[in-house]
Amino acid sequence: MDMGYRSVGLLEETWQCARKAGAAILEVYRRPDLGAREKEDSSPITDADLASQEIIDHGLQDLTPDLPRLSEETAHADFQTRRTWRRYWLIDPLDGTREFVNRRDEFTVNIALIEDERPVLGVVYAPVLDLGFVGAVGHGSWRLDGDRQQPIRVSEEVQPTPKVLVSFSHPGKELSRYLEQLPPHELVRMGSSLKFCRLAEGLADVYPRLGPTMEWDTGAADAVLRAAGGHVIDFDGQPLRYNKEQLQNPNFVALGPSSFPWQEAWRAVNREPAEVLEA
């Protein structure tokens, strides 16, 4: 019998922390002025990013005072320090800032617990939708819709017309070439880490990402998808690894059904993966 996400240590407390951060984001979202500006790397930041970060920092400090935290919006420890971290929090206080600025509702709060370079617990919360996804590897994943919780699991079979997820904000020629090599499919555009969660629910088949992402962009949703039976792998067929010296992710593919023919398409664009993912 499913005991629910509250039976998993740290998951309920992390979920409540994400919801509080989401409430702060909504306060900014309802304002005419979002306080948007550019960071040094030309990516956007808003007052909502900073408000969410502050709430998450305080919440996790109270919850696990001995665990370090790594986030998009805070100073990053150098690798010589980080390499000693066996367990730490990985945070994106507002994933999908471009969606937020453009008044699209699919931005999220992402909080992940990383252990031995793998995400083991994740919380993804979409404040406007009041919709959350939580998961812990070895325990399962759940969709939290208001007061309702529902266990979720990836689909075991590829749909007759596969649903392929792509971002609103990050098209590219290499991705277009890859998509051309896939079997006939339905393309679904979606913002932020909710794409991983759609896979975790069994409502889509694959999310190929050929373009830059950072570890905090993927950690929480990676945990939810892995806990739901899915995979997030690079194009050599290896699971994404976290707390690398360089925090940028390689190109990757997130899978619901492991039988989806992602490798055949990759070979067709003149790349050859190292090994086939085992189901």
Task: Provide an overview of this structure.
This protein is an alpha+beta fold and 279 residues long. The chain folds into 2 domains: 5-152, Fructose-1,6-Bisphosphatase, subunit A, domain 1 (Fructose-1,6-Bisphosphatase, Chain A, domain 1, 2-Layer Sandwich), CATH 3.30.540; 163-268, D-Maltodextrin-Binding Protein, domain 2, CATH 3.40.190. It is built from 8 helices and 14 strands. The chain has helices spanning 11-29, 47-63, 79-82, 97-101, 173-180, 194-200, 215-227, 262-268; strands at residues 37-38, 44-45, 69-71, 87-95, 108-115, 118-126, 131-136, 140-145, 148-152, 163-166, 186-189, 206-209, 231-234, 252-255. The strands form 4 sheets. It has a 7-stranded mixed β-sheet with strand order 3-4-5-6-7-8-9, with helices on both faces. The chain is globular and about 50 Å long.
User: How many domains, in number, for the residues?
Assistant: 2
Strand content: 25-35%
Q: pLDDT under 50 segments (min length 5)? A: 272-279
SSE order = HEEHEHEHEEEEEEHEHEHEEH
What is the averaged pLDDT score? 90
Keywords:
2 domains, alpha+beta, disordered C terminus, 3-stranded antiparallel beta sheet, D-Maltodextrin-Binding Protein, domain 2, 7-stranded mixed beta sheet, Fructose-1,6-Bisphosphatase, Chain A, domain 1, 279 residues
